[in-house]
Amino acid sequence: MERRGPARGRSGRDRPGGGWVPEAGHVTLVGDETALPAIARILSLLPAGARGSAHVAVAADDLGELPRPPGMALVRLGGHGALLPTLEALELPATDRFVWFAAEKRLAEAARKSLRDRGLGKAEMMAAGYWAAEGEV
User: Where along the chain is composition biased (Basic and acidic residues) (predicted)?
Assistant: First the structure.
């Protein structure tokens, strides 16, 4: 199925029901509580051989055990302040990688810059602002 719209051309595939899944040997997902439903969906749709990790800043009671391939680690982060340091500390392979980040708008912008500075191209990443802090548009 051909991808249409703003994400067209990104490394990934559409699944039935509109479930987009990154196609890469190594997948990294990072997000806050607003991203948890999307992270859970992506994890559930990844192929069995997927490798990588999901890092989510949520309360311990909110995370639970998410269905995911055995090669995908699930890490709970203590709060929003841990999102960028975690992203920046991750060791990423040089090729066959995809990083997905979703959180507050300014954090997403900083994540996008950080990933570009690390040499990731547009087809290797997505950083989305799911919400804006009070006073931001």
Answer: 1-16
